[in-house]
Predict the 3D structure of the following.
Amino acid sequence: MKVFITGGGGFLGYRLARTLLAQGTLSGPDGKPAPVSRITLLDTAFPAAADPRLHTVTGDLSAPGVIETALDADTAAVFHLAAVVSAGAEADFDLGMRVNLDGTRVLLEACRRLARPPRLVFASSVAAFGGALPATLDDATTPTPQTSYGVQKVIGEYLVTEYSRRGFIDGRSLRLPTIVVRPGRPNLAASSFASAIIREPLAGRDYECPVPDTTGIWLLSPRKAIDAFLHALALPAAAWGHHRVLNLPGISVTVREAVDAMARIAGARAAARLKFVPDPRITAIVDTWPTRIETPRARAMGFTADTGIDTVIRDHMREEGLAEG
Amino acid sequence: MKVFITGGGGFLGYRLARTLLAQGTLSGPDGKPAPVSRITLLDTAFPAAADPRLHTVTGDLSAPGVIETALDADTAAVFHLAAVVSAGAEADFDLGMRVNLDGTRVLLEACRRLARPPRLVFASSVAAFGGALPATLDDATTPTPQTSYGVQKVIGEYLVTEYSRRGFIDGRSLRLPTIVVRPGRPNLAASSFASAIIREPLAGRDYECPVPDTTGIWLLSPRKAIDAFLHALALPAAAWGHHRVLNLPGISVTVREAVDAMARIAGARAAARLKFVPDPRITAIVDTWPTRIETPRARAMGFTADTGIDTVIRDHMREEGLAEG
């Protein structure tokens, strides 16, 4: 069974590939586990890879000729994670439209030409929501994105649903919560603080949090995100019906709750590395994001959230080889 | 003041142009009526035109070079009505994507390049809704289109909202009910029956209605649709805020109620020209359409529906020069 991952050099995409290599199988169209014979990653850069089943293609999905080179005719599973992130698509409208919208269309058209309609999981986002939102969203809340990135994700969802209705693919779109804890360093993304408030102090680095500690976060751990991608792919088409978009379960915590949990687990010295220096520009963006979503449909389909922020922090420390305090 | 109408050779587009020529002015950016100096119509065919202010461009919006020729740099008002209709977009997926999605993007990009962001009214449709719907929809109902045409319209709405948020245009999308009574002859559109059950008998022609007489229709007259286009353009941006999509008010009637009204107004002889020969394929499509929408937002903004099916029928008869029976 051949697998294709766009954004396969990114944090989630590469972790998904490593998980697939480790488990060795993936649910096939008949619902039975099939050996993963080859994983092709498409991205602009990659970590060093060393597995005979792993194949990397360097390129931009929306550039002419790239998808023809990258996508094998008998690909059965596609994970579409490639995107210009929120801040990037906001700073450069044309770049976001080209990569996030045109790139998705290029991929869907290439999938349509495959010998057999592949299953496709599309990484959408809670950035589908924005603006004046109810305190708790649910499966019926209409997407009202307030960023170019969010608009491009919602349009991608509609295309994935339509290509599925047409029988060109068997698609599924997942609206991911904010992923916490992301590795790396703080970046320009408005959501960067959500991981940094935990990751930076634990790594012994000071961090200035740009939002007040009352700020709410709707979050999912990297491990649960990978679980969700694999579960979304494994579910039969009948479990989805016509409606191919799903709000994933997450947990709702405030910055204060996350910091207190870190102090409990890693000690007060770590927590003391945080300062709060609110940035009105970032706070204004973050305040439009949903902080709580009721997700009965996803739960009925077997998707689950993390059990709590403590588990999320402990997972991260274990993966990074950090000792509890 | 220069006006641009895509689909300007079509029934609604050309009627809109004639209305603008007759009234001679259109609400300008400052809210005051400004003289209409020129109306450019873009379409693949036109009725005979004879007004020095009227300029026609024959071409396909999505074809290279067409928009550059057609759109004057100082255009202040754009009405985007051009589309491959529902049945056409369903029969030819690529054609619908090219004209309805790519064509809309070409237009929006051209508007973005104008000296000053134009006001733009986009003709969307209740085809945005579909599938298992509640008996009554409202302003919060999430679009779940079940046709390629509906998907393309919803994507167009999101683009119009996003281009407006970016300040590239000042856009407004109107979800039109089924327009009744359309002139002409029955065609392959699944909604064709809604006009034909009134128009054909009144014109002395027999008609076989392909849906049962219990079928509900959410409808708006051509006159009210033109009123809505002009009102949508005249409203200041502040009246819309971020949310640029509106379900237009309509009236909900069954086929039986429409036929009974026609018999009251035009006589039983006209009504006797109707036969009911249900076509399961058409009935299946029509049954997924909404038949009643609560529209408090549109009403608060000053949009109105027809007063009843009798008015709609009498309007049509007057326009066609038909005597009441």
Q: What stands out?
A: The radius of gyration of chain B is 19 Å.
